[in-house]
Amino acid sequence: MLRDFSLVEIEDHSGSVYGLWPDLTLAYLSPSWFAFSQQNDGHPAIADDWGVGRSVLDAIPQVLSEFYAKLYADALTHNPALRPATHTYECSSARQFRRFAMHLYPLRDAAGLLIVNSLLVEAPCDIAARPPHGPSLEAYQDHTGTIRQCAHCRRIQRVGEARRWDWVPEWVDTPPAAASHALCGICLDYYYPEAGPRSVPAQ
Q1: Could you say which of 78, 96, 107, 199 has the lowest number of CB atoms within 10 Å?
Q2: CB 196 within 8 A of CB 70
């Protein structure tokens, strides 16, 4: 699958790299992918659950699956001579704001995709921009017992205030069991404008 690329260069790349077959199952995971997982408390669970042969779409929250399915499908037929297909996204921890660029390279003869995720920005979370809130069930759990978390920035929607999404660091580190993924208005507008309002579940 990686015949268009130097495996040595891929395995030495500092970014998280993975390969997909045309059916979007995982075909390759780089050492830096495993390192990122371990640094963010995802190892060994992520490696055990999301190994080679698993569909990458299974790892994507439902609210974003349609967007990413189209992104991957379009990239498979994209002309890399122009430039690789790209998407910018946020993947922050409770303490560090991080923004990444995803570059999607189609392989020769439609053999699949090589996806390289490169860090663009990393800085301590800005307390002024993201004032921390405590994990209050009363403030965030609705009448069905559900806590709505943005699938992108991981803020939590406040009950009764559809437009208010708070930064709850404890639930960024360990998402609540009752979390349901949605997209807050800011992430929808900034990162996924083409996804449209249909991607946000009804309140």
Answers
A1: 96
A2: no
Sheet holding 147-150, edge to edge: 165-166, 156-157, 147-150, 179-182
Mean pLDDT in runs of 10 for the chain (203 residues)? 64 87 93 76 62 89 90 83 83 91 89 92 92 94 94 93 93 87 90 61 38
Give CA–CA dist 36/6, Å, rounded. 21
Rg (C-alpha) for the chain, rounded Å, is: 18
- What is the distance of C-alpha 63 from the center of its chain? 11
> What is the Cα–Cα distance from 101 to 96, expressed in whole angstroms?
16
Per the confidence metrics, is the pTM higher than 0.85? no
**Structure-derived torsion over alpha carbons of residues 179, 39, 103, 175, reported in degrees to the nearest 10:** 0
